[in-house]
What we know:
Blueprint: E1 4-7, H1 13-21, E2 25-28, H2 34-40, E3 44-49, H3 56-60, E4 67-70, H4 80-85, E5 89-91, H5 98-113, H6 116-124, E6 143-147, H7 151-164, E7 167-171, E8 184-186, H8 189-195, E9 198-201, H9 215-220, E10 226-229, H10 238-247, E11 252-255, E12 275-277, H11 286-304
Amino acid sequence: MGKKVLIPQPVAEEGVDYLKDHGYEVVFVENSDEESLKEAVGDCSAIWLGVPSITREIMDRAPKLEIIARQGAGYNNVDVKAAEEKGIWVTNAPDATTNTVAEFALGGMIAIGKNMFLLTEKMKEGDFFYKDTYLGEDLKGKTLSIIGYGRIGRLLAQKAHYGLGMKILAYGPHLTKEQLEDYVTLADWDRAFSQGDFVSLHMPLNSKTEKLVGRREFQMMKTTAKLINCARGAVTDEEALIEALNKGQIGGLFTDVFTEEPPKKDHPFFHMENVIAAPHMGSYTKECRIIMAMHAAGQIHKVLSGEKPDTPVHHTVKK
């Protein structure tokens, strides 16, 4: 058999078939906790990674490991420093999820704005007329503040403006007016939070962004404003967010992410009428799964064939 590729989560078969067709042995592991991965990774040359975390300790058990290929854009679940020290490539798929997540965020805005899930649940409980006292809102003419104006944020702006007629404010730490479309207004941090009717988070999770959106930001937001988080749970101060929702400091939350995943069954978000919570599923469409799978499989094949990857997240020089 050829070199082994460890896959610790369900993936699209198209990518698996690609690897098998190129002579690789694919190893699946049912449990993706650290101990299970330590046991499974021993003679593997590559890891095709989704949500599970890859620590230095796991890498220590994998002397043949050459690449950890993340099938999404984020890579905060990999100890990149350890990988670079060990000469292991870490790659991501920076554009694979762009359209899918932008669509998902837009859908979340509509759902929380129209109270779709709440009113559906009330109707299932027999209260057809709950809608009379819990009105939704139109998005046309409302202001969408996008925090982190990268690929996903930019495409969300386009869809929201042209599709829904929304006004767009964009914030990025290095963003300039010249980089923006003519329908987008550059905003500083405070303006983005204080003027947005919807505030959508699209920054990566790192040491600078962890808990970056907290009590101060929630106090600045309109009491009717909805927060949309399809980035990472830990970019918000979750405790402060729960407090703001309970006190009515902000109008609602659509979140696809949690600080701890999976969240505990009694997480406060699950018991709030002004919250819609999804299980980190923003990229979970058939089309997106295939795009991610083919990208990850392609990067694995490149590296294991002795080439440099197309989308590295660091500058490892192969041994």
